[in-house]
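Handout, tutorial session.
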Amino acid sequence: MPTRNDTTTDLALLGVLAVLWGASYTFIKIGVETIPPITFIAARTLIAGTILLAIIHWRGLAMPTDAANWRRFAFQACLNSVVPFTLIAAAERSVDAGLATILNATSPIFTFLLTALITRHEQVTLRKLVGVGAGIAGICLIIGTEALGGLGHELWAQVAIVVATVCYAGAAIFGRGFKGLDPMLPAAGSMLCGAVMLVPLSLVVDQPWTLTPSLASILALLGLSIFSTALAFVIYFRLIHTLGSVGTTSQAYLRVPIGVGIGAVFLGETLGPTVWLGMACVVAGVAAMTIPVRKPALAR
């Protein structure tokens, strides 16, 4: 059984993960100003994967050599990096970082729905169902406002972020299958597989040698790759095993105020009243689903 120290460590790591991923949306917003999304994410996965591989070698570990594990890494890459990273990067060319943070924070909602409908490895309770309802209401408030104004470009960008969020939910569940591996191995494997898929696409579509990225975009790419990807994914895979898929995605309700705050401070972003209301619903829903219920103490 986990000790009190283990639980404290996991909760601290959950907070660190929320900060790292909360900052990622601002990094992305700055990065895609002068670097196309596919090239930006190809570089992100390549840099992060290379860093993780170097750390693995330094620790004296070795990557798996069997085809089965690498097929699992490739599938995890599609769910956790290739598709969602690219969708979010493309969306943030028109959507604010704070808004992207809020929409993407609904990952526990979709993780719960997928576990309830498919894997059924976590308990369905009335409290979680209420949380799902609140989270979905928040999404409808945010996206519905744009929809009422017509099917504009920003609406499709917001929908793309929600699709990316569903991918993250699937990745949280599939990531449970790496229990026999050191957390760094699936983190590095999925990043490297993502790079193998995206780098050739970047060369064909964007011809990156013709780009002239700004210094701010390059620094944002490095910050995103080193801290919000390489370090964050090591923490993520550890917590998947210790806290479970829904428990790990609970950092989403912490990530919302962090991500929105960073966007406001560094990018000067502001939210409209409907978005604030939607954010409150999302945070309340995610918190209701993921904050543990205290069990009454036994009478002595």
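The second record follows below. Compare its token runs with those of the first.
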Amino acid sequence: MEVGAHAAAEGGVGDAGRDAPAAEPDAPSPPRGGRLRRRWRSWSRRRRITVILLILVSLPLLPVGAAALALRLEYAGDPSDQARTRGRDAIWLGHAWVDGRKGAAELATLAQRLRGTGIHDLYVHAGPLEHDGTLPPSAHPGARQLVDAVHRELPGVRVQAWLGDIVSHGGPGLRLERPPVRAAITASAAQILDAGFEGVHLDLEPVWSGNEDFLNLLTATHALTRARGAPLSVAAAQIDPLPSLHSVFQALRDHPKWWSQRYFGQVARRVDQIAVMSYDTAMPLESLYGGYVAQQTELALEATPAGVDLLMGLPAYYANSWGHRGSAETVAAAVRGVRLGLTRHDPRRPDFGVALYVDFAATDTDWASYRRDWCRLDDRAG
């Protein structure tokens, strides 16, 4: 605006009708700002309004485009050959393994898929917890038989109980702010270990970043599992890709998507394993999703102390919704993202792995990607 106004004043528009010397043949052209302003004025009002509206619509897209470019760059490069399985991987298994729906034949098939891979932990769904934190014994009638069968088929593989429930934020669910509820959850962890499971995997959602009650629960439960010689693991939210993004999201939705990196570290210091649910990201393309996973891997590695297993989740399931594009969130893209993030941060870190979610939805392609890209195996057993 200022350039155009200055050009008009210097052009002597008010003197245009008076006698003036002819312009020299090689006189400089009028300033470009003046030409643009005259062209703008020559347009119809409707055309000018349309251009203004297009500019206003485009402005919010600029940060989105910049973020997409940043994620695409995160997905570029070659991962180190050292960024492979360390034999500390895991897989989430459905409830059918402990309620009698799956038996010896299904376990033989699973064992064939797992042999030679890095799978060390099975998170077997043994809940859900009641809203008061208790766990009915009837929820896991086949626990002991499953653990014994896994030891026969897959020596060295550990079977943990996957316990989950909704965390209340004004509605139904676990009220973690209540000490009796937290005590009941810890008692349920003891009950699971008594039933034959070799570890406790907590998946309580949603937990808001900064929730002290959740930290208190982990502290108490970890004291129990440590005394019993069993690991405590936890399913964790993703980490803020931008500073304080979790605060904005928590203000808008009842199901927060991210934790701060600081809070993630506080959770990690209270457990033996932390598994990032690095899926349901709303990314529309494989390259963007893989770049996002690479970024999440680096952020989680920075926050997880040595001696604590960090596992990055792999989306071994297919769905199409606003939060999950099946064509974008693939095991192959996630594995490549994990390898790139590990390469950039610490390709030799020993206490690191991936976790496949979930056995009953995983396809042959998912298994092949995990075996080939992460474990350096062919896919004939997949």
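Points raised in discussion: Confidence is low (pLDDT under 50) at residues 1-27.
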